[in-house]
Amino acid sequence: MASNRLRVHEFYIPFEPQFDIKDLGPLSYFLGLQVVSHDGVLHLNQLKYVHDLLHKSNLPHAKPASTPLAAKSVLTASDDDLLVSLTEYHELVESLQYLTLTRPDISFAINIVAQFMSSSRSLHMVVVKRILRYVKGIIHFGLYFTPQGPSIRLIVYSDADWAGCP
Questions:
Q1: Which domain holds residue 87?
Q2: pTM of model > 0.85
């Protein structure tokens, strides 16, 4: 039993000499998130990611939409013709899902279009492109984190479906 313990210790290698660790300075960009810090306020956005997404979907010059979904829009699995290629639809919806990290306002709309991943229709793609046009109009939006005093109180209001729930 003592020899087993010795073998374990023989293979123990300290972490520090094996990896070079560098201080790269303040965080500015990480996994598609741009991080801007100014006077203690931290702003997270995905500006470059949105620009790339708009170019990928051929919408860099499209007219921005004022809302991600049309009022009282109801999508079903049999609305229109099936898409010939589901790949573009899947990639756009998945990209928009990643965008919700800094844009929680589009979460409800993305949830609606994500329900039709297996049977995507032409109308569903129109809705996805409308969401992209909405994002284009709020391209500089993101999340702001500000330092709080000793007592932290979190107040959140959300009406993601714009009072559309019956």
A1: 47-147
A2: no
